[in-house]
């Protein structure tokens, strides 16, 4: 697929460039600074991609980039959610502009685009309930308004998926493009976290679910490379089972 990757200079973004190439996609990177991206990638990787400069808050420019480069899919890793609930940043503005740009381009090409967005563990549901985990552990709350926007889209206007990882760390500081993926595959589940460990603790009044969520959270730590690989691999599947749902992931090999 030809993929517009928005936020290619980020921690996840540079690894998405590599993973998309490993899985045979054509990459159009959308970044604020081409020079910055060039400084972050080995020349052998940078020379394989097309780079478009623009702001992720500019929905018209995003639509134009999609249409001019004939992209069939978009991955958005631009913006970073604030951890503390009282902190605010521009992720909601970025997210809604990207979504608007993707939706508009779909209308103009008469076919919805496939798109992966980034959320966080907190927008998944506490297993067995219809309540988000972030109701119990109120951090990274900006993802909640983003998932609301996705769910409010008219049917079939964007073939979206929302990856909802917990903390992601780097396996390698060097970015490379192996001929095939070398990372442990993630186990995924839609709507609630996969392989949740249940406990009687959840029945403790008021604090039980918070305690259980906090105990489970570190089990969902994964690597940036694994998540990049998950998205890139899924984009090779035209009938992805993750379309229209938030997706939780775990490294079950740990
Ligand atoms: N890291 C984690 O552990 C983790 C866990 C769960 C979810 N997530 C989510 O995953 C996503 C990616 O995380 P990350 O760690 O890769 O973040 P990051 O390293 O901070 O990267 C953010 C990217 O957004 C770009 N950006 C910011 N504002 C922009 C704008 N106005 N126009 C264009 N680009 C803009 C930055 O570009 P510049 O280089 O130009 O600044 C950078 O490429 C975020 O949504 C985050 O909330 C992360």
Automatic annotation (TrEMBL):
Keywords: Signal. InterPro entries: NAD(P)-bd_dom (IPR016040), NAD(P)-bd_dom_sf (IPR036291), Polyketide_Oxido-like (IPR051606). Residues 7-174 form the NAD(P)-binding domain. One of its GO terms (molecular function) is oxidoreductase activity, acting on the CH-NH group of donors, NAD or NADP as acceptor. Residues 1-19 form the signal peptide. It comes from the Eukaryota. PANTHER family: FLAVIN REDUCTASE (NADPH) (PTHR43355), NAD(P)-BINDING DOMAIN-CONTAINING PROTEIN (PTHR43355:SF7). This is NAD(P)-binding protein. It comes from Aureobasidium namibiae CBS 147.97.
